[in-house]
Amino acid sequence: MFHRWAESRWKDAFAEPYVQILFGARQTGKSTLLRHLLPSPSLRLDFSHPGKRSSYLSRPEQLIQICLAMPQTDPPPAIVIDEAQNVPPIFDAVQHLYDQDPHRWRFVLCGSSARKLRVLGTNLLPGRCMVSHLYPLTTAERPCAEAASVTLSPPSPLPWPAPPSRLDPWPAPDLITRLAWGELPGIVNAKESARPDLLRSYTETYLSEELRREALVKEWAAFSRFLQLAASESGQIVNYSKLAAESGISHPTVKSHYELLEDMFIGFRIPAFSRSSRKGVLSTPRFYFFDIGVRHAAAGLAPSADTVLADPGRFLEHWVGVELWKRLQYLRDGQLSYFRTKDGVEIDFVLERHGVYTPIEVKWTENPSSRDARHLVKFLKEHGDKAPHGYIVCRCAYPMQIHPKITALPWFCL
Questions:
Q1: Mapped to the 3 state alphabet, what secondary structure does 281-333 carry?
Q2: pLDDT along the chain (414 residues), means of 10
Q3: Rounded Cα–Cα distance for residues 80 and 329 (Å)
Q4: 100 CB contacts (<8 Å, ≥6 apart)?
Q5: Where are the domains of the chain?
Q6: May I ask the CATH architecture of the domain 7-133?
Q7: Which pTM value belongs to this model?
């Protein structure tokens, strides 16, 4: 088994006397990691199974009866509930048991959607739980082979801390492979010939199944049009009016559909940078699909090298944005935004950590120049001591100083 960066953190969390709630999109590896960390729980329920789901929807108190019959042991018996969002009343049953004795059982609830829980106002065990997320693979788990050519540690804008434990790394592909098929573990492990079909199935089968099961979308055809348009626009500033007109649905419904994608962990918003004193700074967020391979499939494109090479700069920017976002989510420290003004000054990403702003531009070039840094220079001047350094992430072979305060960084040194 290849290991995940979150593995040691989850293992430590499972030893704490709290309910563990683990969220993440389908195929990010939640169930596999849980089976590795808790190979023999006292009870494992999978509510993706129709029969099991129906049984506990009608009688959620079964969980209480089963748990009370378990002998008290040290360590406590582990109860693992997969796709817990499909049976919202199970959260009340878990709270009832936890409040009786926080140390008698260890509950781990896993889910791939928070929509139904939010809409129904489901009890998410405030004060009793720890919430964690699992994302597609990062460069800490799937390192870049090219990084071995850089013997000195490069000055990354958001360096990974030392992993909680030694990781057995996943296979290291080249850049085009990453941009074509993304970072989902199941896709990474599949034969290259099978990856396009698997990604299409992910969007056609999983999203359809999840949405129909929870009755979250009334007009499936209209949502399908919206999904394809939203995927095509992934990484761009959200234009609600344009998507409403092209998909044939209302402006409020477009906003609701974006919220649905976020609740299912299929995408996330990057807000506009709001700390600028400039006039004419745009404030509408950008929306990103959580994995670029899924993005291609949802947009109706063949996930392939040819697709990437048709617009490589855009897809490299998308990959960098998702990588930075995943790191920030795991580190639980900092914020990612973008900067753009009406007069054309644009910074792809701005990292905000500990009161420091780090602007980042992404370029497909192998030979970055001072021209590529001009917007970064303006940003650094405007924000003074709060923005000490900027970066250009590109395809250069080694880190390069483009300006006294700007470093061009190879993508594999990010």
A1: ECCCCEEEECCHHHHHHHCCCCCCHHHHHHCHHHHHHHHHHHHHHHHHHHHCC
A2: 83 90 91 92 94 95 97 94 92 93 95 75 75 92 78 76 67 91 93 92 77 66 88 93 90 89 92 74 88 95 92 97 95 92 88 95 96 94 94 94 94 90
A3: 24
A4: none
A5: 7-133, 145-413
A6: 3-Layer(aba) Sandwich (3.40)
A7: 0.92
